[in-house]
Write a sequence for this structure.
């Protein structure tokens, strides 16, 4: 195999200035291995590195044991010697622009806890992720080890394709003229890569050694159509969802729960006792109950998501879903315990609303009929979960006005005695209002006053509709503001660009707005767009994800140095041509620091 | 820890792309205006090389031309040379033809090069440079190159023969001196070099090779005393942060030194071509040294913000492959 390093020229074009932050898109072609290296200065014109023995807090106000003060940012890696030894230290790196070096001009901030400075001659190497202020940062994943180990040498014989000097065993010569002679580690099997990292693998198409998942610097595994939230200590949590794909079929992963520890900046696989029997994966209902408890309702253990058509005619379908789950799972992140309660019937795509710290309302969904066929239902259950408990007591709670699956709902008054339910069906009954009295609901279809049609897979941000499909197709529905007035739903359009399907929706911020990321766009393609939906529509914003995705999980950090940051993790991407139906699962997190 | 005085030294083994570019801009800022020669560098010709090899070599030529402060490098013609020749009614790539070509593109000089394969792996370079106004060749050389690896070097040497050393190369030849640059955070801090007053606030001076003692003083602040070493053709920079005498205990801080590494890789083209990979390996070295004893044990660690190198992280055990 002939390897070609494309990096240099491609990335040179990405440079916009001395402190530019740029990366190059992937895209191997013509059967050659493309060597991709991001060309980031990493920091701005100035850099400050500090080390703390104690948690420095959100503002790094603690006493540092080491402080470089302002330095010219000439490097991305720093070897520090003669610093205080010891475990559990924090390193903080701040990048400033070229003009000056003060907090107001900070353009990036990075921190890393759980650092141990050891005595002796073998220093440990730590990666410090830098988070861009007001931008999106892609956490490390899919690392090309070969690229990072490429060695510039005087000469090698590319024609022979293997003729790197003996000092570089396992390296392949890169074909070019001076100054582009490189010896690059190459592989034919993953065992060839073990010398670099025990979990690295050989990318067969290129012959490079890669480390796809540099956990704990990123999620340990992909995650699609799962759930996210935040914990009372500020950490972000990822729950459920599909974790892998095999022969086009989405399957559960191995990590039911992962946590982003905002104190250390590292991800953690969180083992929750009591969830050994949990079989549900994606397409489950979900509600954050408060006090770090989360309810996950039903779901399917596996499914195929396929698509057909292209452009605005694209249709995306969940097909061949099986093993509908009849489990209601309570996860208590404070005690790292969980419990599985059996629901009266299997459910997927139910609408779940938190009623109080100790109860959730489960409405509608897809289930099996008496003959074993999948049907959409309108039944509801009110599930009580006592404080500190992880098991639920679910009682029938009446029925919706109509059957729904894949809708969304919000309480319209504080005690949740009235609930707006939107979408989840393909007819004119786009929304209904549900009254909850004495543990029983009664639904009433709303008269729609404004531009709102039928919406599947509806997603709400407060009372704004920010995501959804028209039937099985892509969105033609525009984002709208919804206001219940008696039996009428007043609808105010918030823009003309149709909604995306399965976007990642963040929580409402202090202004009541949400950040929306990705989804399948009205053009039929998965989107990389990120925007903030305000009460005046989507705010103009140039942000984009590094990779288009839909069905991603939004978890958010509410404390620490990147408090307020949104973590977009996992998701799916369309990988084939118009009617191939091929999707792939996405790993890794991108961090939006608004 | 308040009574202790620490000196932080930073040695940067290699520098990043952006910094090189910035340094270049700074260096040029103070030089007097000079009329530049407009040079039209033609694409590499020759029937034996692949298109990619020609492109690679052309990058080298353009980089070499572009690194001369005296040259204003023009955008090369987008059309094939043969098409240009037909338009200009040229019969051969001679002085007359290249002059017409230069006049068309408003050049003062035209740099033409041709690379042909010889026997036993050797190559032949033909390099012609024409003075457009005078319509005559100012350089016409045929050079034999023993092997493929020497082709690029040969072209660079031809550029040097015609246009002289690049500014960077000339600087790197300054073997007997270097520069000391001191930047204090207080504008009226007094800077002394080898006990001689040099400036207040900020200074950059040329000095012979060797070690120099620098002292930065300001009333009410802890004086900073440190040593810098001047190395050939380089600038040793220290950013000095003065700390108030009443400041109490604080972090290890003080001066931070950044040593420019220039030499062979200082030309911009080198970085645009391979800077990406090399930049991945750039490592700064920060040494915290103490002037008096510290009872706590000392250790070492490496910290990097480079995502591509994240697999080296001590804690990275990896997740699902």
């Amino acid at each position: 195999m002939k390897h070609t390093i494309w990096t240099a020229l491609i990335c040179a074009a990405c440079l916009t200035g001395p402190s530019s932050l740029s990366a190059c898109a992937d895209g191997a072609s013509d059967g050659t291995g493309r060597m991709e290296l991001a060309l980031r200065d990493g920091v701005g014109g100035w850099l400050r590195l500090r080390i703390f023995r104690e948690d420095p807090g959100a503002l790094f106000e603690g006493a540092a044991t080491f402080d470089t003060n302002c330095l010219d940012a000439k490097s991305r890696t720093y070897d520090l010697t003669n610093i205080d030894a010891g475990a559990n230290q924090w390193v903080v790196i701040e990048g400033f622009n070229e003009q000056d070096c003060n907090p107001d001009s900070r353009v990036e901030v990075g921190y890393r806890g759980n650092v141990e400075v050891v005595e002796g001659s073998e220093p440990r190497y730590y990666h410090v992720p830098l988070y861009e202020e007001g931008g999106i940062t892609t956490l490390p994943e899919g690392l090309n080890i070969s690229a990072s180990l490429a060695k510039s040498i005087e000469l090698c014989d590319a024609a022979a394709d293997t003729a790197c000097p003996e000092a570089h065993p396992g390296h392949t010569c890169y074909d070019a003229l001076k100054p582009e002679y490189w010896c690059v580690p190459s592989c034919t099997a993953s065992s060839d890569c073990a010398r670099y990292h025990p979990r690295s693998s050989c990318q067969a198409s290129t012959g490079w050694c890669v480390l796809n998942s540099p956990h704990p610097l990123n999620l340990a595994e992909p995650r699609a159509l799962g759930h996210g939230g935040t914990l009372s200590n500020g950490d972000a949590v990822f729950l459920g969802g599909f974790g892998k794909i095999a022969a086009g079929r989405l399957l559960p992963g191995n990590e039911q729960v992962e946590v982003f520890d905002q104190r250390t900046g590292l991800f953690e696989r969180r083992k929750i006792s009591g969830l050994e029997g949990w079989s549900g994966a994606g397409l489950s209902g979900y509600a954050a109950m408060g006090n770090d408890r989360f309810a996950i309702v039903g779901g399917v253990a596996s499914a195929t998501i396929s698509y057909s058509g292209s452009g605005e005619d694209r249709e995306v379908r969940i097909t061949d879903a099986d093993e509908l789950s009849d489990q209601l799972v309570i996860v208590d992140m404070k005690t790292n315990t969980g419990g599985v309660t059996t629901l009266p019937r299997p459910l997927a795509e139910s609408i779940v609303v938190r009623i109080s710290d100790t109860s959730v309302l489960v409405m509608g969904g897809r289930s099996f009929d008496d003959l074993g066929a999948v049907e959409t239902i309108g039944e509801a259950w009110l599930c009580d979960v006592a404080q500190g408990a992880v098991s639920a007591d679910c009682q029938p709670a009446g029925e919706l006005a109509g059957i729904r699956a894949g809708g969304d709902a919000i309480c319209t008054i504080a005690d949740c005695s009235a609930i707006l339910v939107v979408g989840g069906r393909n007819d004119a009954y786009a929304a209904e209002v549900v009254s909850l009295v004495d543990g029983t609901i009664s639904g009433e279809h709303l008269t729609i006053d404004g531009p709102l049609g039928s919406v599947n897979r509806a997603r709400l941000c407060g009372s704004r509709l920010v995501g959804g499909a028209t039937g099985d197709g892509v969105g033609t529905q525009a984002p709208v503001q919804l206001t219940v007035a008696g039996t009428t739903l007043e609808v105010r359009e918030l823009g003309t660009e149709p909604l995306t399907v399965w976007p990642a929706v963040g929580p409402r911020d202090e202004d009541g707005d949400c950040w929306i990321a990705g989804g399948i766009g009205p053009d039929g393609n998965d989107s990389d767009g990120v925007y903030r939906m305000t009460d005046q529509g989507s705010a103009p914003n140039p942000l984009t994800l590094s990779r288009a995705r839909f069905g991603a999980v939004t978890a958010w950090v509410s404390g620490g140095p990147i408090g307020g940051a949104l973590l977009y993790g996992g998701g799916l991407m369309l990988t084939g041509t118009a009617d191939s139906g091929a999707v792939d699962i996405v790993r890794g997190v991108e961090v939006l620091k608004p | 820890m308040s009574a202790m005085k620490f000196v932080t030294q930073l040695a940067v083994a290699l520098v990043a792309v952006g910094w090189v570019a910035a340094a270049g801009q700074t260096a040029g800022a103070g030089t007097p205006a000079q009329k530049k020669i407009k040079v039209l560098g033609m694409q590499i010709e020759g029937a034996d090389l692949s298109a990619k090899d020609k492109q690679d070599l052309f990058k080298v030529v353009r980089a070499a031309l572009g690194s001369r402060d005296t040259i204003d490098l023009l955008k090369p013609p987008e059309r094939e040379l043969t098409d240009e020749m037909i338009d200009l009614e040229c019969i051969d790539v001679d002085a007359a033809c290249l002059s017409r070509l230069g006049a068309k593109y408003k050049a003062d000089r035209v740099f033409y090069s041709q690379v042909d394969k010889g026997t036993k792996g050797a190559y032949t370079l033909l390099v012609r440079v024409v003075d457009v106004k005078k319509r005559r060749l100012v350089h016409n050389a045929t050079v034999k190159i023993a092997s493929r690896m020497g082709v690029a070097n040969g072209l660079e040497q031809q550029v040097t023969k015609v246009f002289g050393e690049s500014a960077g190369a000339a600087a790197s030849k300054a073997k007997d001196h270097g520069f000391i640059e001191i930047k204090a955070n207080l504008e009226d801090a007094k800077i002394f070099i080898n006990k001689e007053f040099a400036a207040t606030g900020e200074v950059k001076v040329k000095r012979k090779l060797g070690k120099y003692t620098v002292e930065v003083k300001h009333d009410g602040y802890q004086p900073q005393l440190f040593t810098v070493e001047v190395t050939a053709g380089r600038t040793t920079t220290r950013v000095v942060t003065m700390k108030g005498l009443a400041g109490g205990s604080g972090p290890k801080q003080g001066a931070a030194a950044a040593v420019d590494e220039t030499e062979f890789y200082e030309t911009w083209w080198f970085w645009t071509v391979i800077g990406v990979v090399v930049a991945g390996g750039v490592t700064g070295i920060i040494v915290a040294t103490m002037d008096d004893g510290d009872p706590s044990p000392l250790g070492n660690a490496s910290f990097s913000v480079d995502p591509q190198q994240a697999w080296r992280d001590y804690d990275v055990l990896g997740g699902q492959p």
About this structure: The longest strand of chain A covers residues 315-332. Chain A is about 0% helix and 45% strand. Residues 1-44 of chain A have pLDDT under 50 and may be disordered.
